[in-house]
Structures are given as C-alpha cells and as structure tokens.
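stuck on this one:
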Amino acid sequence: MTILQTRNLKKIYGAGENAVHALAGVNLQVEKGEFVAVVGTSGSGKSTLLHMLGGLDRPTNGTVTVDGKDIFSLKDEELTIFRRRKIGFVFQNYNLVPVLNVYENIVLPIQLDGNSPDAAYVESIIETLGLKSKLQNLPNNLSGGQQQRVAIARALAAKPAIILADEPTGNLDSKTSQDVLGLLKITSQKFVQTIVMITHNEEIAQLADRIVRIEDGLIVAR
C-alpha cells in the first residue's frame, strides 16, 4: 500500500535570473512500513523535499499525497490538523518542550488534537526506546541521545501515516547516532511505521530499507 507519493514536485525560489530550482520535478513513492533514506549533499534539495513532504512549505508545482490525501488541496488550517494527525516529525534539534517532562512531551500532539493516548501502545514505545526510567525528567536533564529518543517516541505515539526525520543524528556523536538509528529501524519494523529520513551520511543511510539519492533537485537513484 502506497503511503506517500509525489508527482512532478517543483519548488522555485525567486524569479527570473535569480530563480533557484530547489526541486526540479521529483517523483517519489513510499510504501507502508518502508524505511527510506533520502541522501544528498548540501544544496541538493533534500531538506526542501522534506518540507514539502511534511506540508511545511507549499510547492511551486506538483502534488504530495499522504495516506490518500493530496495535502496541498487543503487550506492552511486543515493542513495543520492533517499534519498533526498523519505526519510525525523528528528534527536534529529535538524540538522538545522544555517545561514538560518526558511523558508529557510524548503525548503532547495527541492531547493537542483533543484525544487520549493509547496507553498500552505508548507504553510499548517507551519500553522499546528505553525511556521508562526517564518519564518524569525534563528535557534539560537528558543527554542528546535520550532527547532524540523522546522525539522519536513523540512522533510514533500519534500513530501517524508517516514519520519524517530530518538529519536525526546531526547533533549526536557516532556511537549515540548508531544507537538512535538502530532504535529507529527497530520501531519501524515493530510498529510497521513508514519512515523517510533525510541525511547526508552514507553510513547512516545504509540502515534504511531503501536509499533514494537526490542531486540538483532531482532524484537520480532509487
């Protein structure tokens, strides 16, 4: 089952001679439960692609379909709600709320949507990610690796159609990076969670089920 699909996705910044074609017609398809790494150098368009896939920025042309919905057919408010329900994000700077403890951070997106967390499911995530003893801690009392685990748990907890991870190990040392990515792969398999990860690191990309390469705003290998 296809969870994510882009068709002729283009993003142009500026106009005329100053126009920058960040995406030049990207066609991508991701199936349910796949762990896909999008690899590219700085300026290749990979971060722009992630922003489009997550509905954080609107394309100049083309479509992004997530779980059967053309996300850019939605108005801004509808898109915000859809994003909260269907798309999980894991950023390299964690984006945790400093005044909330670990558990509160994990269930925050669910509560913002006016729902109650699936307690057994959330507990399973917490167990898998080794966070059980840290639930009452505030983010500033955690290591970088632990904070990233909380961010992964938060992304998983709402049972999104897809998780988008933007250089998720960018602020971590190599050993912690391997630990976090191993857990990301385990959670992908255990919870049949679709993940698209952006990275410039070839070694990290090898952990994914499939590697997609982007250069100059175009996919050159998939």
